[in-house]
Write a sequence for this structure.
């Protein structure tokens, strides 16, 4: 039996958790027209490799100086819009989280300047990269900490290729929790065979951002409420746009507190590499879901041979949702007739929810306000209605006649007779 206290908690959580910003519908329209500020098809002809696309992110530029590639990272507080009307006060690099993707080639000599504009000291670790011990970036162990206002220089020759990361090794619990991480991609010196046509990089992260607040809570160990691809939630995450027949690689990195099973619809991929190196072809295996452990990367490859709009998401179901109340009573199957009116006398605007499931939350977006700077539990509108997702979810868009990778092609037009349909007459 529900106690009066539980009912009140449920009522408050329903108003806050139903939460549900009116602007989410408008943002869902962006689902069709995402911009892609990463390498275009024109750029790809200038290198012997296919440049990496970091959805909703950027690449770090460099300058050549006496045969050395020079990069400059600035560790600093940043503001990141995770989704419609949710801006988060994070720490990152060069104005964003994750930081800009570093791309270089096996054999390159690199010199990376790291300037600290944070309110505390930091360092930077080149996760998975083979280098001299003094360049490894562990504050207090392999180098002094980089104090606020200081710039340190890291210089080494790249002796391997693959998908790697950079992140602090100083006050790591706080600095990782608030977004300090990025990709370091090293392309092989030789031309890859078979050729990769589209190459994407996605950083997985999870955050504790309490309703109505703006700053991640680094003290939370388990109860996270925001789950992101490249510090964005669905439907604000760029789609992965490819042509039919493209060989696609997705590089997935995880610096969160949980492993994530990343699933693709309509295709299977082969796990071709980890941050430890390339997996020999005989050791690769097909999967539709790749488990990405904490502190690791996984490269997966597939041939985009099935046109359509294919979901790509974490398969932990709470990780494709946004904030929800975890402490409220379970009202699934509970007849709340008569209670609603009584509770409204104490809490104006209360709406009984959850008796038949949670899909109704997607509709409440249109008329129920929620706490400031807090996303609806589920968002996104597709060609057939509400998609009812959030968090770690995006769409791989495969098209037969794609003119440009740089423009989202809109929703897939299904050939006649290929869409599930309602049966009007009962069997």
């Amino acid at each position: 039996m529900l106690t009066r206290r539980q009912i009140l908690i449920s009522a408050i959580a329903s108003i806050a958790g139903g939460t549900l910003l009116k602007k989410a519908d408008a943002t869902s329209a962006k689902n069709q027209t995402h911009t892609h500020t990463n390498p275009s098809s024109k750029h790809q002809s200038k290198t012997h490799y296919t440049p990496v696309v970091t959805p909703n992110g950027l690449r770090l530029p460099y300058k050549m100086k006496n045969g050395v590639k020079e990069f400059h990272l600035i560790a600093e507080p940043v503001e990141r819009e995770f989704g419609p009307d949710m801006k988060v006060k994070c720490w990152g690099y060069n104005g964003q989280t994750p930081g800009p993707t570093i791309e270089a080639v096996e054999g390159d000599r690199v010199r990376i300047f790291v300037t600290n504009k944070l309110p505390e000291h930091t360092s930077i670790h080149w996760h998975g990269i083979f280098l001299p011990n003094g360049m490894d970036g562990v504050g207090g162990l392999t180098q002094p900490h980089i104090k606020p206002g200081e710039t340190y220089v890291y210089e080494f020759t790249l002796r391997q290729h693959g998908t790697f990361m950079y992140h602090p090794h100083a006050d790591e619990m706080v600095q990782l929790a608030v977004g300090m991480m990025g990709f370091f991609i090293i392309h092989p010196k030789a031309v890859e065979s078979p050729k990769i046509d589209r190459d994407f990089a996605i950083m997985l992260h999870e955050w504790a951002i309490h309703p109505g607040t703006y700053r991640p809570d680094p003290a939370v160990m388990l109860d996270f409420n925001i789950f992101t691809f490249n510090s964005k939630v669905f439907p604000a995450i760029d789609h992965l746009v490819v042509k039919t027949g493209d060989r696609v690689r997705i590089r997935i990195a995880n610096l969160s507190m949980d492993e994530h099973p990343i699933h693709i619809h309509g295709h299977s991929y082969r796990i071709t590499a980890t941050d430890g190196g390339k997996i020999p072809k005989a050791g690769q295996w097909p999967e539709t879901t790749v488990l990405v452990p904490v502190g690791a990367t996984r490269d997966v490859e597939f041939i985009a041979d099935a046109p359509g709009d294919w979901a790509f998401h974490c398969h932990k179901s709470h990780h494709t949702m946004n904030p929800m109340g975890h402490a409220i009573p379970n009202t699934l199957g509970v007849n709340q007739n008569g209670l609603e009116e009584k509770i409204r006398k104490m809490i104006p605007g209360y709406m009984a929810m959850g008796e038949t499931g949670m899909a109704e939350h997607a509709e409440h977006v249109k008329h129920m306000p929620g706490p400031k700077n807090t996303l609806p539990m589920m968002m996104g509108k597709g060609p057939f209605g509400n998609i009812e997702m959030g968090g770690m979810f995006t769409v791989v868009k495969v098209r037969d006649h794609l003119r440009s990778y740089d423009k989202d092609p809109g929703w897939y037009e299904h050939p006649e007779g290929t869409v599930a349909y309602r049966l009007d007459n009962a069997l």
